[in-house]
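Researcher: We're teaching a course module on how sequence relates to structure. For the next exercise, students receive a sequence and then see the predicted structure as tokens, so they can try to spot secondary structure elements on their own. Here is the exercise chain.
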Amino acid sequence: MTLEANRPASSIAVTAFHGIVVRKDALRAKCIPVADVLHALEATAPLDEDGELLSFGPSFGEEALHEFIRRLEALGLDYFTDYCTISADIPEWCALRASSNSELDA
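Model: And here is the predicted structure for the students to work with:
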């Protein structure tokens, strides 16, 4: 099997600079409007999105990221189950993308 065969059909851009990825299924299941997430993360729009995921960032440092985590938890979202953070030392020439692992939903 080639790498192309393993590549997901859809992926979104993510930032390694204190980024956040939120599962849309979690928002639907908990009746949390995307507008509430935008407000909590002080965003007018996600960095990127597809049918399953929303991506936000970059955040301005670890303190800001922790405040955003607190706000997402106050909305009723659970870290790691409903959203995750991405922070890594990645050079600007390297682009990161994320996709939903739909095999876990089966």
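Model: If you want an answer key for the exercise: Strands lie at 12-14, 19-23, 48-49, 53-56, 83-86, 96-98. Helices lie at 3-6, 24-29, 34-40, 62-75.
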